[in-house]
Amino acid sequence: MNTVSLARNGIIVSESGAEVATPLAVLAAKVRLEDRYTLRSFASMMCRYPDFQALSVFIPPLLDECARCPESGCVTDMLTHMELVRRVEMVGFPGEPRFSFLCTLAGRYNDAEQELRLFQLESLLDMPVKLGLLKHSVFGDSVNIMEFETDYTLFEFIEGVAWEFGFQRIPEHCSIRG
After folding, report:
1. pLDDT band at 104 (very low <50, low <70, confident <90, very high)
2. pTM of the model
3. Which has more confidence, 106 or 29?
4. Are 162 and 45 spatial neighbours (Cβ–Cβ below 8 Å)?
5. Do the beta carbons of residue 170 and residue 58 sit within 8 Å?
6. Which of 18, 45, 49, 153 is the most exposed place for a label (fewest CB within 10 A)?
7. How far is residue 176's CA from residue 146's CA, in Å, rounded to a whole number?
8. In terms of pLDDT, which residue wins out, 4 or 164?
9. Has residue 131 been placed in a domain?
10. How far apart are CA 164 and CA 137, in angstroms?
11. Integer angstrom CA distances of residue 91 from 84, 100, 119, 145, 147
12. pLDDT grade, residue 169 (50/70/90)?
C-alpha cells in the first residue's frame, strides 16, 4: 500500500516527496499527517483538489463555513487536539449480532474525549488533527474497549472528517447518510 503525506498547507505529497499529480488515484493510499496538521489544512486540501468535494455532501457546506471563519487563531484551550479514531463495534444483542465499522473525529483534552458538537468551528479550525488507534468494543462495553495500532486510507480520512462535521455542524444534512 502506498503512503501519502498530507501537508499542513493542503498539498498531498507522495513517497518520493513530490506533489501527487492524480489525487483520485491515491484515495486508497495509507495516509500520514504532517506535524501541526489542522482542520484548516483539511479545508485547504479540499479547495486544492476540488474532485474530493464530491466524496461527501457535507464537504461544500463545511468549506463555506470555514470561509467565514477568521484567517488564524481559531483554537480553544479546552482541547489539546482532534483525533480520528476507527471504531469496530459488535452490536445487536439481544437480537441478531453484527459488526459496525466507522471512523469518527473527536476532540481530545490529553486523554479525555470531548464531543466536538460542544465547540464552534471558529474554535476548532486551527486545532491539531491526529490519527488515533482502532477501538474495538463488544455489545456496547465501554469499560473493556480494546485498542490497536491501525492505518487510515485517504478516503477514510476525508470521509471521517466530513461525516463528523456534517453531523455535528450542519444538521440539515444528517438524514442523507444511509
Report:
1. confident
2. 0.85
3. 29
4. no
5. yes
6. 18
7. 31
8. 4
9. yes
10. 20
11. 21, 7, 29, 13, 17
12. low
Residue 144 belongs to some domain of the structure:
yes
Total domain count, the chain: 1
Asked if residue 8 is part of any domain, the answer here is no
Question: Residue 155 above 80 pLDDT?
Answer: yes
DSSP label of 121: G
The whole domain housing 159 covers: 37-168
The C-alpha cell that represents 35 in the structure block: 506535524
Whether residue 50 is contained in a domain is answered as yes
Look up residue 56 and give its amino acid: S
Q: Are 42 and 74 in contact (CB under 8 A)?
A: no
CA–CA dist 84, 151 (Å, integer): 11
Whether the pLDDT of residue 171 is over 50: the answer is no
For 73-83, b/e burial (b = at least 16 CB within 10 A) is: ebebeebbbbb
